[in-house]
Amino acid sequence: MSHPNQPFDPRLGLLRRGRAARSGRDAAFLHRRAAEELLERLALVARPFASALDVSAHPALAEALRGRGLAVAEAGEEDLPAIDGPFDLVTSLGLLDTINDLPGALALIRRALRPDGLFLAAFAGAGSLPRLRRAMRAAEKAEGLAPSPRIHPQIDVRAAGDLLVRAGFALPVVDRDVVEVRYGALDKLIADLRAMGATNALALRSRRPLTRIGLAAAAADFGTATLERFEIVYLSGWAPAPDQPAPARRGSATASLADALKPPSR
Q: Among 198, 187, 185, 191, which residue's Cα sits nearest to residue 230?
């Protein structure tokens, strides 16, 4: 059972991811896209990695890392306090946006890294699923229901960067990738989300299913041949080490930006 102050129900999240893995339906195109991007970023790092910890909602990244010869341990949110590091690399795919204590989890991940160890992560960020949100509001309005949380709160790029800094990571980098997917109907999107294990796991979600009236209103609002938007947020940060490069001290610049922007004299 989740704590009343926790936004997510961890047991339900695990249950839905487990059902998705057993369903036999492959809809993990967003996970694969994010995993490929993280692997490309890792390939740009000019140093070897031997041991890795993967804290993910999907096995695509861990499998690829093992294929590259890394020894990979896997963990869930609940395992982080007992993790026995240190690791050269910690990765996370599709999980951080549904962790109840994300600041605490990031701090535990940093402590699991050896000095100058790397953290790479990707998750669905703010701006995802706007058409689904609108369709759910249309359904509630059609049934005369008060608004209920049906899509969990999402983390934007700025907040993600602040969380990395707060957790003590050095050289934090945060960016995003916008993916648009065309769906012929709302039920196709819902089927994909179920097959990803990404349906509603909020502790305060409504237990009342929508009736045919609400479902019809949602489907009509969503329409056909509709572009749905997903935003993937990417994070990277390093465990602090004495020999890491550091940003220049504030006020230490030897050239003026104003002078650099002046037009050339004739």
A: 198
List strand residue ranges (DSSP E) for 153-259, in order: 170-183, 226-238
Q: Whole-prediction pTM value?
A: 0.85
**Cα(230)–Cα(250) distance, integer angstroms:** 37
Domains of the chain: 10-129+153-184+229-241 (3.40.50.150)
Please compute, for residue 67, the number of CA atoms within 13 A of its CA located in the half-sphere on the CB side. Answer: 7
Cα(221)–Cα(208) distance, rounded to whole angstroms? Answer: 20
The tokens describing 136, both together, are: 């759910």
- Angstrom distance (rounded) from CA 178 to CA 146: 31
Buried b or exposed e, range 92-127, using 16+ CB within 10 angstroms: bbbbbbbbbebeebbbbbbebbeeebbbbbbbbbbe
Helices 102-112 & 157-166 angle (0-180, nearest 10): 50
pLDDT reported for residue 39: 95
Q: List the structure tokens of 206.
A: 């409504």
Q: Is the pLDDT of residue 255 over 60?
A: no
> Between 236 and 197, where is the model more confident?
236
Calculate mean pLDDT across residues 162-173. Answer: 95
Q: What residues are paired with 180 via a beta bridge? A: 229
- Check pLDDT > 60 for residue 2: no
pLDDT at 251 over 80: no
Residues with Cβ within 8 Å of residue 266, at least 6 apart in sequence = none
